[in-house]
Amino acid sequence: MTLEEINRLPSQEVETEFSKCCGSTRWAKRMGEARPFANIGQLFSKADEIWWSLSTDDWLEAFRAHPKIGEKKAATAQSAEAQRWSAQEQSQSQQAAAETKAALAEGNLRYEDRFGFIFIVCAAGKSAGEILASLSQRLGNNHETERRIAADEQRKITQLRLNRLVDSSSSK
């Protein structure tokens, strides 16, 4: 599937494809409505524009579509492709030493207790130590600051996955 094919998909099908990239139902729907995209740059730009226009509830819905760092299952159902992408993004944390994994699990609990949502970080390319350091630092943020940081991390993840969606689709 190319960008042109994404532009031609029926609404329900394209929303399913976009939901692999971001777990916000409203984001996926609005991305489908924003078509056609003239080029990849416009796709990415519109993805960001729509993301930042959403409510906190929409952001929280997207966060729930991710497994906690170091875990494999999200709070809400994910497609097989989204699960595979998440596992790839978190692959370095899965290879961490037992004490680092335990510290991540404990940090995840503290974070969720403090902020009311899971720790979201664009983990692609980051070591477990880097993720743990980010988690520890972000625990000191106030709620509003942390919500915005988490939303930006989700935006980064969405951009990576949109790239994979078009790349993986184009290679079929």
How would you summarize what this structure contains?
The protein has 172 residues and is mostly helical. The chain is built from 10 helices and no strands.
Question: Can you tag this structure with a few keywords?
Answer:
UraD-like, 172 residues, 10 helices, mainly alpha
Folded structure, characterized:
This protein has 10 helices and no strands. It has a single domain, classed as Orthogonal Bundle (UraD-like), CATH 1.10.3330.10. Helix 2 (11-19) crosses helix 3 (25-33) and helix 4 runs antiparallel to helix 10 (143-170). With 172 residues, the chain is mainly alpha-helical. It is elongated. Helices cover 69% and strands 0% of the residues.
Helicity level, as a percent range? 55-70%
Look at the helices and sheets and give the structural class: mainly alpha
| Major beta-sheet overview | none
CATH level-1 class: Mainly Alpha
Uncertain residue ranges: none
Give the integer mean of the pLDDT values. Answer: 88
Tell the overall outline: elongated
Q: Ends: how far apart?
A: 7 Å
Classified in CATH, the superfamily is Oxo-4-hydroxy-4-carboxy-5-ureidoimidazoline decarboxylase
Topology of this structure?
Layout (H helix, E strand, L loop, with lengths): L2 H6 L2 H9 L5 H9 L6 H14 L2 H9 L15 H10 L1 H4 L3 H18 L12 H11 L4 H28 L2
Helix pairs in contact: 2-3, 4-10, 5-10, 8-9
